[in-house]
Amino acid sequence: MPVIDRKAGYSFVYPFGWQEVSVQGQDKVYKDVIEPLESVSINMIPTTKEDIRDLGPPDQVAEALVRKVLSPPTQKTKLIEAKETDIDGRAYYTFEFTAQAPNFTRHALGTITIANGKFYTLATGANERRWDKMKDRLHTIVDSFKIETKV
């Protein structure tokens, strides 16, 4: 299912059957009502930076984001991969990580970029036990994330 937010300047797709939920501090969140760890969220914060590369290399930026923002401090995190991609001349950092809680492990993907004076973060994931079943769908979400430059 496509999400196009022209005001905020982004678009992405999410799996059929997920529902929008309201989460404080997030611009949009969609999740599976049966498997609550399966979700996608988008967040934007103002920035004076103009390019994601201004923050550092992909692994360094992703590691800091995973540890300090995308996972509670009580969870043990592991960055699996971080890479830079270019879409329509804009740099995006895409990364994969796990966050281990006492009773479950979340396997997740994220993508970040800077545009329109904002730092955009899209994160999606699933319970580790369902990763093999969900990973292709979650990669589709991350790969679909696009920013429209406002003129």
Task: Report on this structure.
The chain has a single domain, classed as Protein Transport Mog1p, Chain A (3-Layer(aba) Sandwich). It contains two helices and ten strands; from the N terminus they run E-E-E-E-E-H-E-E-E-E-H-E. The protein has helices at 58-70, 131-144, and strands at 2-5, 10-13, 19-21, 28-31, 39-46, 76-87, 90-100, 105-115, 118-127, 146-147. A hairpin with a 4-residue loop joins strand 7 and strand 8. The mean pLDDT is 94. It holds the Pfam family PsbP.
Name the descriptors.
18% helix, single chain, Mog1/PsbP_a/b/a-sand, Protein Transport Mog1p, Chain A, 2 helices, seven-stranded antiparallel beta sheet, 151 residues, PsbP_C, PsbP C-terminal domain-containing protein, three-stranded antiparallel beta sheet, calcium ion binding, alpha+beta
